[in-house]
């Protein structure tokens, strides 16, 4: 069957695996939620959305669009078009200032 798009995936920053502002991506939504019989869903697709890794930043950056070509073990090509955009985050301390001061003393 011919389709314009096999899967549409929304990937975001995985706050549960965050370590010092660095993390992995996590699939937030996927359409359709079930696999097509003729085109299986590729596990680990979230790694292709941010190939340099995921990091929190307070700076706004321009949206980026690129296409990756994934080749499976049978030499079939799968095209992955990515639109990457960032939302700024406010970084707040996790400990009150007086507790941090006590640790420094």
Kindly describe this structure.
Pfam families: uDENN (PF03456). This is UDENN domain-containing protein. One of its GO terms (biological process) is regulation of Rab protein signal transduction. This protein is mainly beta and 105 residues long. Helix content is 8%, strand content 31%. The chain is built from 1 helix and 6 strands. Strands 1-3 form a two-stranded antiparallel sheet. A two-stranded antiparallel sheet has the order 2-4. A two-stranded antiparallel ribbon has the order 5-6. The longest helix is centred in the C-terminal third of the chain and has 8 residues, at 97-104. It is elongated, with a radius of gyration of 19 Å. The protein starts with 7 loop residues before the first strand and ends with a helix. 4% of the residues are buried. The model has no long low-confidence stretch (mean pLDDT 80).
What would a concise description of this structure say?
The protein contains one helix and six strands; from the N terminus they run ββββββα. By secondary structure, the chain is mainly beta. The strands form three sheets. A two-stranded antiparallel ribbon has the order 1-3.
SSE layout and pairing:
Blueprint: E1 8-13, E2 22-23, E3 25-31, E4 54-55, E5 64-71, E6 77-84, H1 97-104
Antiparallel strand pairs: 1-3, 2-4, 5-6
Protein name: UDENN domain-containing protein
Pfam families: uDENN (PF03456)
InterPro entries: DENN_Domain_GEFs (IPR051696), Tripartite_DENN (IPR037516), uDENN_dom (IPR005113)
């Amino acid at each position: 069957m011919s389709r314009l798009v096999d899967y549409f995936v929304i990937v975001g920053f995985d706050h549960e695996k965050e370590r010092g502002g660095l993390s992995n991506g996590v699939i937030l939504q996927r359409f359709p939620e079930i696999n097509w019989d003729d085109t299986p869903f590729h596990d680990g697709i979230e790694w292709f959305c941010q190939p340099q890794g995921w990091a929190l930043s307070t700076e706004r950056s321009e949206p980026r669009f690129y296409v990756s070509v994934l080749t499976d073990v049978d030499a079939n090509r799968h095209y992955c078009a990515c639109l990457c955009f960032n939302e700024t985050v406010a970084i707040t301390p996790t400990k009150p200032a007086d507790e941090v001061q006590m640790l420094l003393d």
